[in-house]
Design brief:
disordered N terminus; 13 strands; two-stranded parallel ribbon; single chain; 14% strand; 7-stranded parallel beta sheet; alpha/beta
Length: 350
């Protein structure tokens, strides 16, 4: 049995390079670490993504080994947090070459450079390496059987990185619950954007995930670096929720019209992209390696967990939902932000 302790504060190796800042996990990690450590934290973006013009972000394609090596020489990175990858399921299905380039080739180049320089690497993977047809609760030793091009390329990246650098740590995360750089590409803000526009959002009853707050994940990355964990770990939150249940929470907490939420089984989805089922992960091994539970349940309060398929329609008079309330309880883990202190360092960074 794992003995749990108070979460200490951990610091990542500095200077730190963060990749994948267009995704929810990378965006929130970069902002949090940049706020804490200033110009000791840098990020890269694709040369073609000119819209991202933020302080601390450098244009450099991860597939370009020469450009990456020059960047490592210039900034002297001592750690790499690789959150990169294209998670747009339909785009990956329609353009497997693009998916391979962004999800495998770029991470491979980073792993080669980090290994050659003896720099610790933490790479994010995903729960969609599983098909979700085996009842969920997956542990690291379970075989992978992804149903999407995205999942297949993420499996390939895992295997290649592990072969290149056995000291690298690969974390399989689920849905990172935080705001996205675009404001409508994350699990929460895409659903919210539909409701805000008075448009229907259709989510699946039987696609089940283990989401986690991004501020919890940010603390986790620092802890993994500090403990120098290596190998593969599941990093899913302790609460399992279907996509439909997640949408119910967004709808009710945000105070949106319940009539715009639709639900259906995966069998009624279109052929592209294919949908996974119960891809929930058991993260016991990670907690045991760290000596504490790194991730809190999302959402943090039991009262925001749906009890049935019509839960989002049943709203007590003294529970006025609003976008402000949604930002307070779904984007930020109140357990870690309340009272400040070590555990609240990364809360509220969105």
């Amino acid at each position: 049995m794992c003995r749990m302790f108070m979460r200490p504060r951990f610091d990542p190796p500095l200077p730190l390079l963060v990749t994948g800042v267009t995704g929810v996990a990378g965006y929130n990690a970069f902002r949090a670490f940049r706020r804490r450590y200033g110009e000791q934290v840098w990020a890269i973006r694709q040369q073609s993504n000119w819209r991202i013009d933020w302080p601390g972000v450098v244009a450099c394609d991860a597939e370009d080994s020469e450009a990456l090596n020059r960047l490592f020489d210039e900034y002297g990175f001592r750690g790499v947090l690789d959150c990169a990858g294209n998670c747009a399921l339909k785009s990956c299905e329609l353009d497997p070459t693009m998916a391979w380039r962004l999800n495998v080739e770029g991470p491979t180049r980073l792993a080669e450079i980090a290994a050659a320089r003896g720099i610790p690497l933490v790479r994010l993977s995903i729960d969609l390496v599983y098909s979700g047809t085996r009842g969920g609760g997956h542990v690291e030793s379970d075989w992978t059987d992804p149903v999407t091009v995205y999942g297949k390329t993420m499996v390939e990246a895992e295997q290649v990185i592990a072969a290149i650098d056995p000291t690298a740590c690969i974390l399989r995360i689920s849905l990172p619950m935080g705001v996205s750089a675009s404001g409508h590409a994350g699990a929460i803000d895409w659903i919210q954007s539909r409701f805000q526009q008075n448009k229907p959002a259709t989510l699946y009853f039987d696609e089940i995930r283990t989401p986690a707050y991004t501020d919890c994940l940010n603390e986790l990355y620092a802890a993994v670096f500090a403990r120098r964990l290596s190998g593969l770990y599941h990093a899913g939150g302790p609460r399992s929720l279907s996509l439909y249940r997640i949408a119910q929470i967004v709808n009710r907490v945000g105070g949106y019209d319940p009539n715009y939420l639709m639900g259906c089984p995966r069998s009624e989805a279109g052929p592209i992209p294919p949908r996974a089922g119960d891809v929930t992960m058991d993260s016991t091994r990670l907690a045991e390696a760290l000596g504490f539970e790194p991730l809190d349940a999302w959402p943090g309060e039991e009262r925001w967990v749906p009890s049935d398929d019509d839960w989002h329609r049943c709203r007590p008079a003294d529970e006025p939902g609003s976008p402000e309330l949604l930002a307070q309880v779904l984007y930020v883990n109140a357990r870690r932000s309340a009272g400040g202190g070590e555990s609240g360092e990364f809360a509220g960074e969105v």
